[in-house]
Amino acid sequence: MKKYLNILKKCPLFEQIEEENLLGILGCLNAKVESFDKKYTILAEGSPAKYIGIVLSGSAQIIQIDYNGNRSILSNITPPQVFAEAFACAETPSLPVSVIADEPCEIMLIDCRRVLYTCGNNCFFHQQLIFNLMKDIATKTILFHQKIEITSKRSTREKLMTYLSLYAKEANAPSFDIPFDRQELADYLEVDRSGLSAEISKLKREGLIKCQKNHFELL
């Protein structure tokens, strides 16, 4: 576990917990690390919602597939982000989403009950862990509403420009890289890929954006 300390120190779940205490905490939480190849399912839709995941290396995507097989990307997750915590805390009978490796990655899995319920050792850090967990869930709720703001727009153009504007604001720069290729961006915006590509070409001709692959610039 020592080789992951630099990443875990930056993880929101362990905020304000001293580095020298982290290894002991991980032992108490019975944390385990697993490796996944690209496109491998880390957590499957319909499986029990019991684990909190932390991305240690690589990246993954949280996706949802509807009855007709249409895929929607809810979030792209990279180190040291936490995922599936809201479902685990709510003790949801089964996950309504899947978590898929977007590239080879290492994931730390923690049984949520180990965080929410204190152990017999009365470990001092549990109160801080629970506070951090609730803060992280609140932050994710804000991001979820941001996605609703994007996907609630009526046209592909409006969805795309809202997404790019929000990303530029977050990057504090008019030029930035997004974490999606064209198909993934279409899945995130919940639009047709061909329509998205046509709209990007139109915006480029109008001189509103420049882009190459996943690099965009707002003009």
Would you mind describing this structure in some detail?
By secondary structure, the protein is α+β, with helices and mostly antiparallel strands. The protein folds into 2 domains: 2-136, Jelly Rolls, CATH 2.60.120; 153-218, Arc Repressor Mutant, subunit A. 40% of the residues lie in helices and 24% in strands. It has 8 helices and 11 strands. The strands form 3 sheets. It has a 4-stranded antiparallel sheet. A 4-stranded antiparallel sheet has the order 2-7-4-5. A hairpin with a 5-residue loop joins strand 4 (60-65) and strand 5. The longest helix is centred in the middle third of the chain and has 26 residues, at 126-151. The model has no long low-confidence stretch (mean pLDDT 89).
CATH architecture of the largest domain: Sandwich
Q: Whole-number radius of gyration?
A: 19 Å
Roughly what percent helix? 25-40%
- Strand order of the biggest β-sheet: 1-8-3-6
**Main β-sheet description:** 4 strands, antiparallel
- Looking at the structure, what is the overall shape? elongated
CATH topology-level fold name of the largest domain: Jelly Rolls
Query: Averaged pLDDT, please?
Result: 89
CATH C-level class of the largest domain? Mainly Beta
Tally of strands: 11
Strand content: 15-25%
The count of domains is 2
Spans of at least 5 consecutive residues whose pLDDT stays below 50 are: none
The CATH superfamily of the largest domain appears as Jelly Rolls
N→C terminal distance: 46 Å
By DSSP (H or I, 4+ residues per run), the number of helices equals: 8
Pairing-aware structural class of the strands and helices? alpha+beta
